[in-house]
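Chain and backbone:
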Amino acid sequence: MVDHNQFRIKQLAYKWLQGTCTPEEEAELQQWYETSNGEPLPIPEELATDEQQLKELLFLHIKQEIQASKIKRIPQWVKLSGIAAAFALLFI
């Protein structure tokens, strides 16, 4: 018999890989991951037909997460022009 919590985590893993998790579900999955002590994430077998496809899905999802969380930097010339404008206003 499958533990209810394990079943829930499996559902969340499926939704996460499909990109359909709500923010609350992602938080629940993240909380489970942080307290899992290295327990493997249960990924539904029906999600991928083979191991290579599963790896590709995981890589794609991780890549999308990284791109979404990249810090947007302000170009150096914008910073310097702002400083120059501030000094120009001081001396007017």
About this structure: The chain has four helices and no strands. The chain has one domain: 4-90. Residues 4-90 form one domain. The radius of gyration is 22 Å.
